[in-house]
Each structure stands twice: as structure tokens, then as C-alpha cells.
Amino acid sequence: MNTQINIAGVTFKNPVMTASGTFGSGMEYAEFVDLNRLGAVVTKGVANVPWPGNPTPRVAEVYGGMLNAIGLQNPGVDVMIERDLPFLKDFDTRVIVNVCGKSTQDYVDVVEKLSDQPVDMLEINVSCPNVKEGGIAFGQNPDALYDITKEIKKHAKQPIIMKLSPNVTSISEMAKAAEAAGSDAISLINTITGMKIDIYRRKFAIANKTGGLSGPAIKPVAVRMVYEASHAVKIPVIGMGGIATAEDAIEFIMAGATGIAVGAMNFHDPYATIKVVEGIERFMEEQGIEDINDIRGCV
Fold first, then answer.
1. pLDDT tens digit sequence for 56-115
2. Which of 163, 162, 107, 169 is nearest to 132 (CA)?
3. What is the domain range of residue 110?
4. How far apart are CA 117 and CA 122, in angstroms?
5. Is residue 59 part of a domain?
6. For a tag site, which of 38, 51, 71, 166 has the least CB within 10 Å?
7. Residues 88, 95: contact at Cβ < 8 Å?
8. What is the domain-level CATH number for residue 119?
9. How far apart are CA 291 and CA 90, in angstroms?
10. 201 within domain boundaries
11. Which residues are part of the catalytic machinery?
12. Closest Cα to residue 275, out of 236, 249, 242, 295?
């Protein structure tokens, strides 16, 4: 039984990854989860300098998921290189570093610093507000997405995955822009913009007013977008958005995803990723599936 997948020449032992921002760099989860069992650990977003993040409160529970406006708080790429990457190097799993920035140069700085590090792939978070363009995210305009992808590709030594925002009119158009600019793969979906109001305090539940909605509530939207994107491009797609069980993961694979990532569920159940890995293996056994790649895009 083969659970191996290949993305841009990188082989993963299975399709299960962690979604950026939900697993730290694996340190917090290593006592619960055998990281060696995962296809990849995708780190929290890292910038060229430390980011303090947004004011609190930054997280709110909502029906079917959670809202967060952490604001990509991170200690910066230098700390990651010194502290996190040496830790991850000891595990038999692929390492994907998520990169964020407020300008194209910010992204390029991080990508260049990581060029000689033990990192298998780079996931580029284009849901960051582009300060030069008045705060609209790089990933909400196909031309901006094309330009930043092309520029990062010039400097990146590792294959790049552009992480797409669902807060767009056409996900196919965004996927095509990333592919045309040379991205090696795409991952989707990032969180959907949402809001919660505390009716007793008559205030927003999150200081930022809006936050990113993740969790089971967004899964049907994510499956639809992964299906559309995987039919629009030839490069591999990593699917995520509300995956809680192996069944959810298999749904994404059947919609066209090569890899999948578990996100918000890690907060609810630290063992979620391992349960998904084992559940996929069980499903393949029960269904007589020899190779996980045989069911990709089968619908």
C-alpha cells in the first residue's frame, strides 16, 4: 500500500501536513504527536523581522469553528533559523516554512535567508496586507499575485507553494496567475474573513473587528475551491480548510488535492493529524486502494 505523494520533485511519506499557524514549528506538539508519522510540518508564518501581531482579544469561538486575528505574530526568521529548524531537522518529515511579509522585498529577504537551510519547500502566505498597495492582500489581485510569485521564484532555492486566499471572486483565476508566474504548487484555502459581535458588551468579539474563520464550517467552500483550482492548473494542489477526519481529507484528495493540511482541528485535538494519517491508511485497506494517487481527482 503506497501513501507516498510527490510535489515538485519532493517526496512525502503521506499526504498529511499541518496547516501553518496551527502547529507552531512542531515543538509544542512533539510530546503528543510523533512528527515522524507526518508527511510534513508546515511552520507558522515567519517574516524578515519580528512581528508583534494584533491587539487582544485575538481569538473567538464561533459555531462550527473559530475566528482569529493573531496578525501573524512571529519572532522573525533569524530566531527560526537558530531555534526551530535545528529542532525539526531531527525528525524524518518534510519541513515547509511559511513566509509572510508586507512588501515584496520583505518576502525576498526571508526566502534568501532560508536558501541554505534544511527546508524542503517554502509556502508563501499572500494573504498579508500589501503596505505599498494600501493594505489589500497580495493574494486578492491576480496581477499582484503574479508579480510577487515571479519575484520570489527568482530568489528561492527551494520549490515554492503559493497559499491562496478564498476571499476572491475567482479562485481559478488566482490559481492560474500563480502557475503562470512559475509557482511549483498552490495551497488553499486560507481563512475566510468573518466577524462576531458580543451582544451583551455591544462590542466586537475581536479587537481587529474581523478575523479569519477556520474549522469545519468552511470545509464545503474549501472542497469546492480545491476542485476548481485543481481543474484550472497542472501544478499540484495542497488542500485545507476544516479537515477534522480522514474522511474529510479523502474528500479533498478526491476533489483533486495531492496533499492536505490539518489546521484548526489541532487546537481541538492535538492528536488530529495522526488520526487522519491512520484513518487514510485504514480507508485504503478497506477499499482495496493500492496507491493513494489512484483516487486523486476521481470525481
1. 999 999 999 999 999 999 999 999 999 999 999 999 999 999 999 999 999 999 999 999
2. 107
3. 5-53+72-195+213-295
4. 11
5. no
6. 71
7. yes
8. 3.20.20.70
9. 28
10. no
11. 128
12. 249
